[in-house]
């Protein structure tokens, strides 16, 4: 501010004459100039209490200013007020009202900043500041050393990849922009090549970025560290002659709102679950929100578990076909609505089918014929006694009375 420069004059005008805060872009420009100085270039840099908002973090990323590690010192609000009590009258930032305003702003913006760095760079680390200073130092140094070692190993392997065929570069702890991975995906995209080669299963691993590797200028994702280690032992075995499906032959999951919109106009397997048809040989209705589009066909599923089974092996379950004779519908319909239907058989099946079946089985057992009644009349009398026994309107004593008459 004291130097006679165009940028200093611009900031002075903002603060003194216009009463405005310094713009985020201007702050990032000042930090960028400081970091480009000789001491920071040689020794590195530590940026404290910045960025304060997600917008500032975005401006830093656009300028290529991304910290290798982002640490958050976590402690309670009560502990913060306790630690700053002795300096509450000396330091401006420790005044109670000022400190409360700063904490409120931090609570609003910190989750967005943490999400940005964790999701894009996976370099956000929380440290419990109530621990000793040696614990805090050891935790920070451990993460920094892991990052430095990973970058050195990655640079070494990448430099020798042309000289030594089969060299694989690991991505773990690099804390680099994930957009770089998206630009150089392999033919497997986000699917694990090891599970495809060994088990012919499609396992999507887009969330497991830390286990991905760079091989032949393409990134490969893996289900777990075990699959990654198998790939590292012999990468050419899983890459060559893979016969992986083309992109349009891969199953695509629709978002719930889009799935409901599609199901409202189209029917896939009459909205029945193909996994239930194949594995359990039963017909079950699928949830309209669980929709998969595969080879221009649409499939719905009974549960999320069944949907994941289909995603892993769509070639098996896409061949499912509904039986010629469909079982009766399982959807419950109120008796009041059934009475309005023209087909009275549906009403009888729904209302009396179960109890009639039980009654017929009960009276078909060996029982004595009434002396004065015919065989048909005896069966009808026993059936009537059974209905009285099962009548929910009767008391328990009445039910026992009619049950005794059947013996």
Tell me about this structure.
This protein is mainly alpha-helical and 407 residues long. The chain has five domains: 39 residues, no CATH class; 83 residues, no CATH class; 98 residues, no CATH class; 69 residues, no CATH class; 71 residues, no CATH class. The chain is built from 19 helices and eight strands. The strands form three sheets. Strands 3-4-5 form a three-stranded antiparallel beta sheet. Strand 7 and strand 8 form a beta hairpin. The radius of gyration is 35 Å and the shape is elongated. It starts with 5 loop residues before the first helix and ends with a helix.
Rg, Cα atoms, Å: 35 Å
Report low-confidence residues grouped into runs of 5 or more: none
Provide the residue-averaged pLDDT: 83
Helical coverage, percent range: 40-55%
User: Major beta sheet, specifics?
Assistant: 3 strands, antiparallel
Shape: elongated
| Coarse structural class | mainly alpha
What's the total helix number? 19
Short structural summary:
Helices cover 50% and strands 8% of the residues.
């Amino acid at each position: 501010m004291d130097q006679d420069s165009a940028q200093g004059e611009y900031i002075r005008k903002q603060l003194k004459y216009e009463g405005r805060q310094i713009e985020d872009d201007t702050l990032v420009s000042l930090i960028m100039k400081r970091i480009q100085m000789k001491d920071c270039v040689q020794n590195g840099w530590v940026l404290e209490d910045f960025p304060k908002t997600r917008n500032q973090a975005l401006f830093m990323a656009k300028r290529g200013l991304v910290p290798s590690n982002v640490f958050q010192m976590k402690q309670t609000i009560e502990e913060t007020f306790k630690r700053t009590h002795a300096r509450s009258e000396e330091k401006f930032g420790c005044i109670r009202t000022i400190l409360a305003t700063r904490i409120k702003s931090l609570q609003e913006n910190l989750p967005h900043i943490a999400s940005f760095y964790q999701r894009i760079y996976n370099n956000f680390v929380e440290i419990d500041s109530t621990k000793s200073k040696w614990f805090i130092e050891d935790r920070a140094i451990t993460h920094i050393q892991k990052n430095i070692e990973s970058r050195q190993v990655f640079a070494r392997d990448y430099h020798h990849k042309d000289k030594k065929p089969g060299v694989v570069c690991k991505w773990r702890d690099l804390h680099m922009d994930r957009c770089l991975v998206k630009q150089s995906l392999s033919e497997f995209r986000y699917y694990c090549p090891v599970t495809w080669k060994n088990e012919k299963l499609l396992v999507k691993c887009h969330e497991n970025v830390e286990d991905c590797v760079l091989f032949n200028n393409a990134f490969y994702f893996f289900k777990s560290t075990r699959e990654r280690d198998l790939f590292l032992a012999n990468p050419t075995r899983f890459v060559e002659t893979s016969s992986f499906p083309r992109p349009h032959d891969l199953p695509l999951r629709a978002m719930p709102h889009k799935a409901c919109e599609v199901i409202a106009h189209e029917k896939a397997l009459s909205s029945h679950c193909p996994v239930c048809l194949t594995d359990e040989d039963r017909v079950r209705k699928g949830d309209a929100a669980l929709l998969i589009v595969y080879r221009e066909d649409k499939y719905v599923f009974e549960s999320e578990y069944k949907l994941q089974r289909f995603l892993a092996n769509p070639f098996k379950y896409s061949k499912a076909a509904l039986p010629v004779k469909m079982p009766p519908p399982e959807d419950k319909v109120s008796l009041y609505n059934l009475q309005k239907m023209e087909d009275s058989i549906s009403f009888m099946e729904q209302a009396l089918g179960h109890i009639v079946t039980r009654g017929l089985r009960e009276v078909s057992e060996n029982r004595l014929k009434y002396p004065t009644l015919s065989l048909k009349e005896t069966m009808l009398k026993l059936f009537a006694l059974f209905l009285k026994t099962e009548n929910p309107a009767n008391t328990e004593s009445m039910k026992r009375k009619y049950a005794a008459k059947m013996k």
